[in-house]
Amino acid sequence: MINTKQIFYLILLISLISCSTGKKSGQIDYNTVDQINVRDSIEIVKDLSFSYEVEVVKYNNPSYKFINDDIIREVCLVFSNDCNKVDLELSEENISKYALKYSEILKEDYGSEPDEYKPFEIYHSFNCKEVYTKERLIILEKNMSSYTGGAHGNYNLQYTLYDTNLGTLLKIQDIFENQKLNDIGRENFLVSKGLAKASPIKDSGFWFENDKFYLPENFTIDNKNLTFIYNPYEIASYAEGIIELEIPLYKLKNIIKEEYKFIIN
Fold it and tell me: What pLDDT digit, counting tens, does each position of 164-209 carry?
């Protein structure tokens, strides 16, 4: 028979377990992030297959639906679909559906007549993960790679910044004074290439239209730096790969907008 003292300790134990879980039974934890991973290989015609892998995050918080919507739109574009006329709900089912539709397009392209130049495999990969979060800011890193024939495949690294208070994607001009940032970026770029600050940008050996330096719209932030990403072919040959330009955050204290000063404070 259980006495009063035993009942007390039993209640205490249940309370401690409840506290350790951080939520009551049946309560939804909206701060969790799910992982969706879909992969498959589909035969297109004889000696040609289409393989794909999609690995992305999915937010449970209803307020972050705009992020999920952006992710599934990117996935849709990977498979060259008309993304204005499809179901843009982030799910394994929809990802598989987009890939299947793409495979049907490939069958039409390669099934009509023999093609001696067709590749043995067509491949697409899309990976999206969270790399930074601070107060109202979430940053996702999106890695894309593909091979559709030719000497080599293609790859791309993209960062996307989201303001969870506003429910919007952020551009660089939303956070910093754009012209002053471009001047600082040019200076850092030349110094990183061992050139004087006043050197013509063409002396860097990279391609800039009309010999005018520019910062790409592709950027990310961490605890130390603001980093800009130039993907292959953007300002240099494929062999140069991805080119990163880092600017220390301490250099940007005077040009960051008031509402985003939490990033460097």
Answer: 999 999 999 999 999 999 999 999 999 988 888 888 888 888 999 8
Q: Is 41 helix (H, G, I), strand (E, B) or coil?
A: strand
Assigned token pair, 198: 């006043």
Amino acid present at 107: K
- pTM across the whole model: 0.83
Rounded distance between C-alpha atoms, residue 231 and residue 73, angstroms: 21
Contact between 230 and 241 under an 8 Å Cβ cutoff? The reply is no
Residue 245 has pLDDT above 50, yes or no: yes
202 close to 227: Cβ distance less than 8 angstroms? no
Instruction: Please count the helices (runs of H) and the strands (runs of E) in the chain.
Output: 5, 9
pLDDT of 207-233, one tens digit each? 998 889 999 999 999 999 999 999 999
Backbone angles phi, psi at 81, to 5 degrees: -90, 160
For residues 184 and 104, what is the distance between their CA atoms, to the nearest angstrom?
A: 49
Q: Is 212 helix (H, G, I), strand (E, B) or coil?
A: coil
Residue 184 makes CB contacts below 8 A (sequence gap 6+) with 247, 251, 252, 255
Query: Which residues, 6 or more positions from 174, have their beta carbon under 8 angstroms from its beta carbon?
Result: 163, 257, 260
Phi-psi map region of 129: left, alpha, beta (phi>0 left; psi -120 to 50 alpha): beta
Task: Find where tokens 């990279």 sit.
Answer: 206
R_g of the chain, CA atoms, integer Å? 25
Q: Which residues pair with 56 in a beta bridge?
A: 36
184 closest CA partner among 253, 252, 256: 252
Neighbouring residues of 138: CB distance < 8 A, sequence distance ≥ 6:
64, 67, 130, 132, 161, 162, 164
Helix, coil or strand: residue 144: strand
